[in-house]
TrEMBL record:
<keyword id="KW-1133">Transmembrane helix</keyword>
<protein>
    <submittedName>
        <fullName>Uncharacterized protein</fullName>
    </submittedName>
</protein>
<feature type="transmembrane region" description="Helical">
    <location>
        <begin position="64"/>
        <end position="86"/>
    </location>
</feature>
<keyword id="KW-0812">Transmembrane</keyword>
<keyword id="KW-0472">Membrane</keyword>
Amino acid sequence: MFAILAIAALVALHAGAVAFVGALPDAWAPALAATVYLPLWPLSAVGVPVFGPAPSGGWPGPNAAGWVMLLVAWSVMWAIPVALVARWCRRPAPAR
């Protein structure tokens, strides 16, 4: 249960950082953009429609399917460190 809550909290923080990237230091923008576009480019390359229409001279943003795919990708991405921390913090089983 703790792991699910931890993953959900980390995904929510990640989504919040992406949503409010303008309020963060400018140096964070490329890293946050990478967490949006890098998981979606392979899906787009195989024909999954994950991007909406691009503004003139700009990059296309994710459409609804793209945001769902991002939430799944971020959940998997954050599940790995949560699982490692949970494994390291696990109490040893009592001796019988």
